[in-house]
Amino acid sequence: MFDTCALLFGQNLLHISQGFIVTEDEQATFFNIRVKMFVLIWSILLCLVTASSADPGASAMTELQCFFGFCISLSEGEITADAGLCAVIHCSFTFAPDFEVSSAAWYKCNQSEIACREIFHSKKNKVQLHFRGRVSLLEPDLNQRNCSIIINDLDQSDSGTYQLRVNGSRNKGPYEFTFKPKASVSVKALTQKPTVEVPALTEGQQTTLTCTAPGLCSESDPNITWTWRRSAEDDSYITGNITTTHGHNSSLTFTPSAKYHSTEVTCKVNFRGNKSTQETVTLNVTWPPVILNSSGCINQSEVLTCVCISQSIPLPTIRWPLLDKHSNYSLAYTVSKYTTNSTVILPVKELSSTDVQCVSTNDLGKVKKNLIIRTSEKSFAQENGGFSAIPLTVTVVSLIVNILLIVCLIFLWNSRKKMKQNQEDQTYLTVNIRDISSDYEVITRRVSASVD
């Protein structure tokens, strides 16, 4: 900072020795010298005050740069932003004591920085069409010496350098000053994602997910939508209320259940200019243990085998109170995702005196279940008063086959009987005819011979 003040002191001293200053409405040499002396003293005092009261956290601003009594501080380095969002050019300025500021204008310069076009004017409505309605001052009162602007709904074509011009009057005449330092802005493709806040999810307890769009400095409200689906499924099934607040925030309120576990929820944010971004989170729902109905026991040759299957998040543990009364047994566990499977095998002589209970526990609660004991000769369905689907099917098929066989036998028997009766009738007639005919012929021939 002191180096800058020394440089500023040397520049002003050189101008005083030369006895002139390049402005638009001052030509008297003596008046110029007085002005320069005043500016020199003012610049030194300003540097000393700035050096003693500099905010160490204000690293986004460059050091104060002064030209002919006009000083400016701009955002340090290149300002980078994503398309569809916004960028802020931080700017503050001071001016000569005899200058009255009336308006400010910002220009965007091309790559050669030779041609600059006005994109914003604090007093005019007609600006470059591409920037119309997208640029505004952070502090409308220029007397606060804050010239910072915000550019909303960025496009990659907004990349370039930006320059400030201040309009006003000096010595009761119109005057304008264009600051030489420029701010550089680089707009890249949209990469920022929304922020989705997911609290702890417990089955049966209402909860709210919150989605916050990136680019909170933008004045344009994006469109926020929620979608959800389970893994490898496209159907939407979460029932909840969606609320959008302050344009950049949206909330999804619902009551989670165990079936929502591992569901993918996506928050999509759509900005102007067909630019969008999204974030997907996976729900992790916790619930107390549930012992499945497929749990049970089987007794075979005085050996009892029991299986207990429990599901929950966090993963449940399984305990067998039965084992407190036995010392000879084998125990095995298998775990997958949110399921615990426990199998116990032990010898028993008197099954009726054995009470088998499965106890499952996690951080959210405990559940107990008395398991049904069945013998190896009976199915589990039959133990509960039902019929097994497989034996019933076999019985029906067997009955149908037997009926068909009986019908076929009856048909064959009738056919055979009829055929036999027809054969007997034909044989009798044939024999009779042949016998009669033969006898007759013989008798006839013999009579004829005797006559002769």
Automatic annotation (TrEMBL):
<comment type="similarity">
    <text>Belongs to the immunoglobulin superfamily. SIGLEC (sialic acid binding Ig-like lectin) family.</text>
</comment>
<dbReference type="GO" id="GO:0005886">
    <property type="term" value="C:plasma membrane"/>
</dbReference>
<dbReference type="Pfam" id="PF07686">
    <property type="entry name" value="V-set"/>
</dbReference>
<dbReference type="InterPro" id="IPR013783">
    <property type="entry name" value="Ig-like_fold"/>
</dbReference>
<keyword id="KW-0812">Transmembrane</keyword>
<dbReference type="GO" id="GO:0007155">
    <property type="term" value="P:cell adhesion"/>
</dbReference>
<dbReference type="InterPro" id="IPR003599">
    <property type="entry name" value="Ig_sub"/>
</dbReference>
<dbReference type="GO" id="GO:0030246">
    <property type="term" value="F:carbohydrate binding"/>
</dbReference>
<feature type="domain" description="Ig-like">
    <location>
        <begin position="194"/>
        <end position="284"/>
    </location>
</feature>
<protein>
    <submittedName>
        <fullName>Sialic acid-binding Ig-like lectin 13</fullName>
    </submittedName>
</protein>
<keyword id="KW-0472">Membrane</keyword>
<dbReference type="GO" id="GO:0033691">
    <property type="term" value="F:sialic acid binding"/>
</dbReference>
<keyword id="KW-0130">Cell adhesion</keyword>
<dbReference type="InterPro" id="IPR036179">
    <property type="entry name" value="Ig-like_dom_sf"/>
</dbReference>
<dbReference type="InterPro" id="IPR007110">
    <property type="entry name" value="Ig-like_dom"/>
</dbReference>
<keyword id="KW-0430">Lectin</keyword>
<feature type="transmembrane region" description="Helical">
    <location>
        <begin position="389"/>
        <end position="413"/>
    </location>
</feature>
<keyword id="KW-1133">Transmembrane helix</keyword>
<dbReference type="InterPro" id="IPR013106">
    <property type="entry name" value="Ig_V-set"/>
</dbReference>
<dbReference type="InterPro" id="IPR051036">
    <property type="entry name" value="SIGLEC"/>
</dbReference>
